[in-house]
Request: fold
Amino acid sequence: KNDVYKYRLTITVPVNTVQTKFTITDPMELVQTHGKVTILDNGKDVTKNFKITDENGQLVARADDDFTKILKNAKETHVVVMNIDDVSLEKATFKDLDKYEVGGIAYVPNVASADLDKSNIGSNKTLVAPPNEPGEPAIGKSVSLDDGKTYVQDGTLGEKTTEYDYKLDVSVPQASEQAWKSVVIKDKILAGQDLDLKEVHVYRAGGATVSSGAMKDVATEETRKEVTANGALAFKDGVLTWTPNVVELKFINDNKGETKYTVEINDVDLRKATEAQLKEFTDKDGKITIPNTGSLELTTENGKVVTIDSKETTVTWSPKVDKPEIPKTGNPEEPKNPIEQVLN
Reply:
């Protein structure tokens, strides 16, 4: 929860899109604090050309007349980057974060926008998820469009045939009274999405809790151990399940504290999805939005079942329409663990 991260909003501004004003707005949640704000234009620091205000988390950067004129008269595309450094949830209590909780994980959203005269372009949500309260089960789900380099809540496909990856971050607490009789991690893969079980991997975090930048505490490459074979992996009727075997279940019950898993579902695609399978997820403009939800099901020895669902993740594809793009990322301090998100 005390990790420091930063947001980066990258705005691609085509020619003839700015005439009289250029404003960047980032309404941050009140549970977040932040440090220095800088703005670059094609790599050059132009912070002095912006009036930056912050009132109750509403961060607004308004370009002055000089910079607006530069964009107005531009003969080529400009790339404007706003960096928000030293963002943190350090001052937020678990009670403050309760309202953001889904699936035992508090997802703190961030949505930015750019105002270019008559065009206001909003972003997808960038999420930051601090660790859940100790002793509580939790499951989070996210999607990646860049081979697992970055994970976001909602992914927009460039092409209908684009492959993408899902990830589940799971926390199984030590049973308070009776041992767990069974543990099942599930993921609904709807609308004819295709996957290969050989591309599904389950990892267990090793040793102490490991922090992955601004994201929830999960296993990292250096500390995790693949345990896919320590359970039964199945995909039937659009539901993926992984059920630990007796050896892995014993590890969970004997572990003093939480057992954390990361499930990576790689190279998912829509190539084999039929029109009938996609129909209920397609709007009148041909936009396809597929929701996905993971779940954690725990059963005690006396038969009590505890089920918790993750926050919904979506994958979207739309027919191409030319318009300015605003990619946004929220980056932990370590460049290897960015939270990247494309804004349309």
Notes: The first strand starts at residue 4 and ends at 13.
